[in-house]
Every structure is written in structure tokens, then in C-alpha cells.
Design a protein that fits this description.
By secondary structure, this protein is mostly beta strands. The protein has no helices and four strands. It starts with 7 loop residues before the first strand and ends in a 7-residue tail after the last strand.
Amino acid sequence: MFPVMAASAVQACKLDNADVTIIYGHLRLSSIIPNVGDTLSPGQQIAVLGLGYSSETDGERKHLHFGIHISTAINILGYVQKQSELSGWLNPAGYLH
């Protein structure tokens, strides 16, 4: 079984004309600003990171999990066990500026 990230936000959008789901993990749930169905703009704040060493960060330091899953299905796996399980994910480094 794979761990599911605590305190996550999910965004559905198109990237390079493909349907993708963007995952933001380890957020403070009470800080999530957009509501379901809202349209987001580039640079818009979505939330703040969860408190370090708390349940919001699974007891670890403050950090963000960011993933791009290829499909409209919500998939918030925190980690995978094998390289082959990454086939449905894009490398976000190619999209961050």
C-alpha cells in the first residue's frame, strides 16, 4: 500500500493540450483558498505549507509535494515503489520557470 499525502489540494487543468491533475501536498487545509470549480490564474496563491513536524507534513520538516498526473483521475500517491509506476506522471521540472 502507498501512503497518501496528508493535507493535499488537487487541480484539474490542461497542459500541452492534455488533461492533467496537479497535486499539491502537505498544505495547511484551512489555508486552501480556491473552491471546487474556481478558475485559477498563473501566480495565484492556492494555500500555505503545513506546519513542519506536524500531521500536516506527516511529521517531517515543512515541504511541498508537487506532482503532475496525466489524466483527470485524482491520484494523490505520496510515493511509488517502482520506476514503472511513474509512467502516469510528468516530470514537473520541465514546466517550472
